[in-house]
Amino acid sequence: MTSITTISARKWIRSRIKEEEYKRYMKKERDFINDELIWEKLKSKRNPSPQEVRAILDKSLSLETLDPDETATLLNVKDKSLWEEIFAVAGEVKKKVYDNRIVTFAPLYCSNFCVNNCVYCAFRRDNRAEKRRRLSLEEVRREVEVLAGKIGHKRLIVVYGEHPLSDVNYIADTIKTIYSVKVKTKRGHGEIRRVNVNAAPMSIEELKMLKEIGIGTYQVFQETYHHDTYKKLHPEGTIKSNYQWRLYSLHRALEAGVDDVAIGALFGLYDWRFEVMGLLYHARDLEEHFGIGPHTISFPRLQPAVNTPFVQKAKYKVSDEDFKKLIAVIRLSVPYSGMILTAREPAHIRREVIPLGVTQTDASTKIGIGAYDQRDEGQKAEKQQFLLGDTRSLDEVIRELAENGYITSFCTAGYRCGRTGRCIMNLLKQGKERWFCKVNAVLTFREWLDDFASEKTRRVGEQLIEKEIEEIKQQKPSFYPKFMQYYERIKNGERDLYF
Amino acid sequence: MEKETSISEDKLIEKLNQVAAFVKKKYGIHIRFAEILGKRWSYIAGEKEDIFILPLTERIKVNERFGLITDRWEEIPERERNNLFSLLQRMLKEDE
């Protein structure tokens, strides 16, 4: 039984925040989110002309990051037909940077103990309805055996509450365990090749520990960029109540040498247009300091959670129509970043928004602690942070994506070939990464079809692969011979060949 | 404020960039240097462009901590390749 005394937990909480590690990034004691300025920009760009909007769309198509005035302009569009143009260009930008592939991953929740008390979250300290649990390393291993051996995932995002029981040492141990698991599959073997981390803000010293293990991306969501709202939702005295400690967590990560970082906002806590502006300012500040912007941007919407009445009463819930708009504007504002859509959203919404610029999504998702190994039927609200909107299997989601012309990619090649940090940014901004995306998508999709697909999905998948191979042959003849060698070797049972 | 890098880290990056530029000029071969962190090969210096005739996917460990990623390493004449490799081993050992 894991336990920790209240006194030692308090001591741990007091030791967390290191002011000197974020204050040095602030200018005149202010952080880079200026609430008044954001509102001013949103107000000053009302009623933009179609010409203005189209000029901005052209800039996005040249894969340049927009400036705040330009993003504010897009957020002020009212005309329906202009929005249709925006949606179409968002899809084009995505194709230019990432091709038609959708990377897939699974979340793995390792612990739901938390010292914070965020009013919108089921993991909050005072929520007695939540059953607390932390996975042992053996349990982590069993979860991975299901994820990599039965479902076929290659990429995880590991999630932890903020608590001394899930400190950096525990996080490091769980990641090492995940990387060590290898499971035999129908024609090859399954393993997790990239572990991304969603955890509380850390100190530079702790982030250096994560770097040493070889994590994928380090992700911290600001939740809301609006200072007053942040203050109201994160009670004083908790670690999370410190806005700047959280805001600069990715600056610290980059300083520590973790060169792939990810940002996000929880939509529904404050005005969605303000949050989009916040994400843009965040991306630009990272670029300004490090020459490296966010590897991915997440845009989850608030979802119902056990014993969390705040969600039902939330004033800023985002409608489906506005959700589409915010995704498209993020896509256009930061063209090089990956965009993550999760199974929080129901299937019909996922279908609708994927063409607007989404690059990654999850499936066969379970977010209860230990839920993969226990094969939990349905959702167990008391073990989850929130309720999922889409519980379809990976096989179903992949089939649907393939029917709509999207190839599911299990690629984890970039970060194993030095395409990280400044290097990957450079390739993405020049639209050169898409060819890696394409060839690696085909190779990893072939692996998955042979090892895990149902007959029905395999048939649909193979038709798509044929089309993709033809495209590679026609448009990238220099890649083609080596690509085909790899492809044939994978068909014969070899695994993990990549560009 | 820019990322704080130690002088030795900056010097190492500069030296590695010089090596990459030399190899590119002399042999037409592209090199990227990376720090090896478990499965991760994290970019530190050298070629950022990629996609030439072939992508850079040939991974060669210089030592336990550093590696290089290249396209046609074997095309460098053997003797010169060995010399270059020894130089890199010395450089990267000094800076470990």
UniProtKB/TrEMBL annotation, chain A:
Residues 98-337 form the Radical SAM core domain. InterPro entries: Aldolase_TIM, BATS_dom, Elp3/MiaA/NifB-like_rSAM, FeFe-hyd_mat_HydG, rSAM, rSAM_sf, ThiH/NoCL/HydG-like. It comes from the Bacteria. Its cofactor is [2Fe-2S] cluster; [4Fe-4S] cluster. GO terms for molecular function: 4 iron, 4 sulfur cluster binding; catalytic activity; metal ion binding. Keywords: 4Fe-4S, Iron, Iron-sulfur, Metal-binding, S-adenosyl-L-methionine. It comes from Aerophobetes bacterium. The keyword Magnesium does not apply. Pfam families: BATS (PF06968), Radical_SAM (PF04055). This is [FeFe] hydrogenase H-cluster radical SAM maturase HydG. The gene is hydG. One of its GO terms (biological process) is water-soluble vitamin biosynthetic process. The keyword Iron applies.
From TrEMBL, chain B:
It comes from the Bacteria. This is Uncharacterized protein. It comes from Aerophobetes bacterium.
